[in-house]
Amino acid sequence: MIEARRLHILRAVADHRTVTAAAAALYLTPSAVSQQLAALEQETGHRLVERSARGVTLTAAGEILLGHANAVLAQLERAESELAAYGSGDAGVVTVAAFATGISLVVAPAITTLAARAPGIRVRVQDAEGDASLVMVLDRQVDVAVAVEYRGAPRADDPRLTRVPLYAEPFDAVLPVGHRLADAAQVAVADLAADPWIGPYTGNPCHDVVVLACEYAGFEPRLEHFSDDFRAVVSLASAAAGVALVPRSALADMDLTGVVVRPVDGVAPTRRVFAAVRRGAEEHPLLRPVLTALQEAAAPQG
Fold first, then answer.
1. What pLDDT does residue 14 have?
2. Low-confidence ranges of the chain (pLDDT < 70)
3. CATH topology of domain 168-271
4. Per the database record, which ranges form the HTH lysR-type domain (predicted)?
5. Under CATH, what is the fold of the domain 4-83?
């Protein structure tokens, strides 16, 4: 008989690619993870992982079992949801991981809605970038992620997750007031090819949006300054350190002294924001009201 706990460990190893990283995510020791993998291999009668200097990869048998593990773990989430509903499930704590702007735009308003509509639900919030929050959901560190589409993100049909679209927003060009294009009504990304750039670090989903926008315009941006804090990005632009593309909502209520903000000419770079829970948990009586409140809060964002 295969233990579900070991299937969860197998999935964590597949996601993180090393025993050490999987162990840290699961709050286990590396030796405990290795022991559980060995026990799972004994239960199945197949070698499931291959270890190398670059990390851990699944064997063909491991990939087969991983597909079943995703289905089994999703079904267990559904079972927990139905049992919680049977026991009323109208009170409890839901943990949400979201990036800073997402917290301001949708998570905080959703908390206000829930306080009136479902006062038994307490929401605990953790600040996490859009890529990190999905891993936190899969590792059961949080219940809900408010995340951003990015290269390498799990697909919409990923068997591990259920995604709920929230909103999409364009990026605007942020230029120093003395920039040669400061008086333009709109700015083409291609016209900024020769400029130094300010942007988020590699790994931040917004970094991907900026780099892809420049690639589509036919050049690789010369990123000279890095910050994941858009206030810092705008401050650097105001010091004429470079140009930037910034999500429109991040510019709201920000001190824009020293910069001009212009819409992007043509198809604007866009970040698409969604909520995600583990597959099978979407109808949990605690999570469903939270997802609904997030969708309602996102509606004005378009």
1. 87
2. 85-89, 130, 302
3. D-Maltodextrin-Binding Protein; domain 2 (3.40.190)
4. 2-59
5. Arc Repressor Mutant, subunit A (1.10.10)
In whole angstroms, give the CA distance from residue 168 to residue 115.
26
CA gap 163, 276 in Å, rounded: 4
**Every domain of the chain and the residues it spans:** 4-83, 89-166+272-301, 168-271
pLDDT 10s digits, 66-108: 888 888 888 888 887 777 765 666 778 999 999 988 999 999 9
- Give the per-residue pLDDT at 88: 62
Cβ proximity of 44 and 61 under 8 Å = yes
DSSP for the chain, written as a single string: ---HHHHHHHHHHHHHSSHHHHHHHHT--HHHHHHHHHHHHHHHTS--EEEETTEEEE-HHHHHHHHHHHHHHHHHHHHHHHHHHHT---SEEEEEEE-HHHIIIIIHHHHHHHHHH-TTEEEEEEE--HHHHHHHHHTTS-SEEEEE--TTPPPTT-TTEEEEEEEEEEEEEEEETTSTTTT-SSB-GGGGTTSEEEEPPTTSHHHHHHHHHHHHTTS--EEEEE-S-HHHHHHHHHTTS-BEEEEHHHHTT---TTEEEEPBSSS--EEEEEEEEETT-TT-TTHHHHHHHHHHHHGGG-
Helix crossing, 4-16 with 60-86: angle to 10°?
120
d(CA 99, CA 106): 11
Question: Which token pair is 181?
Answer: 């294009």
Task: Say if 4-83 and 168-271 have the same CATH topology.
Answer: no
Per residue in 264-294, pLDDT (tens digit) is 998 889 989 999 999 999 989 999 999 999 9
